[in-house]
Amino acid sequence: MQSNKKPANRKLAPNGVIGPQRIIISGGGTGGHIFPAIAIANALKKLNPQHEILFVGALGRMEMEKVPAAGYQIIGLDIQGIQRGSIWKNVMFPVKLLKSVRKALTIIKDFKPNAVVGVGGYASGPLLYAASLKGIPYLIQEQNSYAGVTNKWLSKKAETICVAFDGMGQFFPQDKIIKTGNPVRKESVDIANKRISSLELLKLSTAKKTILITGGSLGAGTLNKSVMAGLDKLIAADVQVIWQTGKYYYKDIVEKLGENYHPNIRIMEFLNRMDLAYAAADVIISRAGAGTIAELCIIKKPVILVPSPNVAEDHQTKNALALVQTNAAMLVADRDAEEKLIDKVLELLKDAAKRKTLGDNIGKLALPNADEVIAKEVIQITIDN
Ligand SMILES: CC(=O)N[C@H]1[C@@H](OP(=O)(O)OP(=O)(O)OC[C@H]2O[C@@H](n3ccc(=O)[nH]c3=O)[C@H](O)[C@@H]2O)O[C@H](CO)[C@@H](O)[C@@H]1O
């Protein structure tokens, strides 16, 4: 791993193995923040099952369901993001922020953490700020190639900042940065020897080519429109589709098409077993969220990325270009997707050599042990302080 930290200044924990520590992991909002957090927690538990881990999230957000499902305890703060375009929707923001910092201080007082980890998302800000007030060391894990205002501000007092992309010195103090890659849940990329069983489980044919379409943890309107526009072509080509619509779009699509629209097309709201979906796929169409990209590099399959244009500083395009520049993925711009995406994927399905090249090249970018490296860094800051 590339590190800018000076080893001479650090007392190293032997492989991160020390007695039980108490760690708070804060953040969430979307899968892109939650699943790396769970991966770090799992890696900490692997280092020492006695480590005690508490999650802090935002009430009403996805983490309040996904974290307990992964076997961890979570406390919710009543916090939301600043909503663009309406002053009225933000009237309560300062009050909620203040209340959340107060609650974060109480959580820290009660739980007495040795260290805090922030993965980004609404709850991360108040919790890390409270940690800084109490002198608790904290680590930031930044998934994207672009850092938001809150993480930049919090980075000043962070012990360590774990990143996944080069060039993050423009946002964070250079001497705190370690390039670890993004942590992924091991079970979501464990695809070996699962192709046939997962196709059978999905009641799909093992003899036909299969396209996986994933719009990230919330789904993607553009991908759904593109599939809708290309359904006739997909059916005519006799290829299979695992179509993750996302929670907000599922009902509408199923109302229009019916749940069992066609034997070749599986319409799913959310994929609880990414490993099975990845294993079944011959090609993948995806948004360019940082967590999904980290997984795609590990599973080494040919990918067409359609970056979301609705994210800060267009960071998904930057995430995607890091792959496209080394011929490790294809890119279709959001504005072109409805017209071109399905033609592109059908072309790729006919071109075995191109699929092999893309799969080989994306595999070269994998950083599969990010979770373990970060977990050791978390333990390290409990020792350094
Ligand atoms: C719209 C938006 O704000 N997107 C951001 C969000 O993406 P988003 O929340 O979509 O996150 P990512 O693409 O990074 O990761 C998605 C995660 O959800 C999992 N998954 C996805 C679909 C599914 O059906 N089942 C499932 O388990 C994937 O395996 C992956 O682990 O966080 C990312 C990481 O900060 C950012 O790069 C994205 O720009």
UniProtKB/TrEMBL annotation:
Q: Which domain of life is it from?
A: Bacteria
| Presence of keyword Cell membrane | yes
Predominant cellular place of this UniProt entry's protein = membrane
- Record organism: Mucilaginibacter paludis DSM 18603
Pathway connected to this protein: Cell wall biogenesis; peptidoglycan biosynthesis
Q: What is this protein called?
A: UDP-N-acetylglucosamine--N-acetylmuramyl-(pentapeptide) pyrophosphoryl-undecaprenol N-acetylglucosamine transferase
Which residue ranges does the record assign to the Glycosyltransferase family 28 N-terminal domain? 23-161
Where located?
Cell membrane
Q: Gene of origin?
A: murG
